[in-house]
């Protein structure tokens, strides 16, 4: 007997054709739903990863409320003075890595091993960095300590001791009192952070000006170009026995030279082209960073960094605050006048530093 065209067993029957199309549509919908679900999972996972990375970097940054600590007793902020940033390299021994890098296991606390006032004029196409020798004798103003008590003003205090005695807000206040320059932002990085940042970048190339043989640090370099890793870089900017007269003044030129080389290296890198490299550098740069509250978030710090993008490290002007050997203690220095006043006046007025102000009676040579 012949099979009727409408019977269920007939594959070509209209009913079976409809069922086939339904199965295809159902299977297609399932595939589309699976693809959408997979895409949704990827988007959520990517968003979650991005949020985790952002939160981690943001949480790395420690903030200090400088404005609250200093109150209103500060130099006036003029509308045309650009931005002034106090940069400190801290020799903190906090944490195993910092202690190991610091050497001298019996040393405790922290001091401002390196200090620079960086002036960025309006337009942010150039910058001036003024290094303050750590052995400079200064008048420390009365400051509020971290526990809320007040430490009285003191004369002939070594500049780098202010940090360990009272803290970063008092360092800012000391710089403002000695210079009359309003400090807009504060940035501090410790030993471990400096080392890790250089290693994350892949090293920094510097042109060593003369042979350096520092038995204290083990740094042994011949004159000429060298690519330094993090540990070598830290020794390079901290060496004082291997160059000049063994004082703090001799190494300031090395610190300024290295800063410019580091900034040039960062600026030349295609960070957006390598997300993994970008994260490593950002993580290294932020995990040992302390800033004022105005910069104490990844968003604020990134915005400030982008605003500095027009500054060419090669054109940055670097100078040591002019100092003279102290008459009472020749192992210490004091601000040389009138040169120091001329330097600070130029920063306040956003003008070029006069040639006469660049002559420091004490050179460390």
Provide a concise account of the structure shown.
With 365 residues, this protein is of the alpha+beta class.
What does this structure look like?
Helix content is 41%, strand content 20%. It is of the alpha+beta class. About 6% of the residues have low confidence. The chain contains eleven helices and 17 strands. A seven-stranded mixed sheet has the order 1-14-9-2-3-4-15, with helices on both faces. The protein has a two-stranded antiparallel ribbon with strand order 5-8. It is globular and about 110 Å long.
Low-confidence stretches: 40-49, 98-108
Report strand %: 15-25%
Tally of helical runs: 11
Order of helices and strands: HEHEHEEEEEEHHEHEEEEHHHEHEEEH
Q: Oligomerization state of this entry?
A: single chain
Structural class: alpha+beta
N-to-C span:
117 Å
Largest sheet report? 7 strands, mixed
Query: Spatial order of the strands in the main sheet?
Result: 1-14-9-2-3-4-15
Shape: globular
Query: Over all CA atoms, what is the radius of gyration?
Result: 30 Å
Mean pLDDT: 79
Number of β-strand runs: 17
Helix content: 40-55%
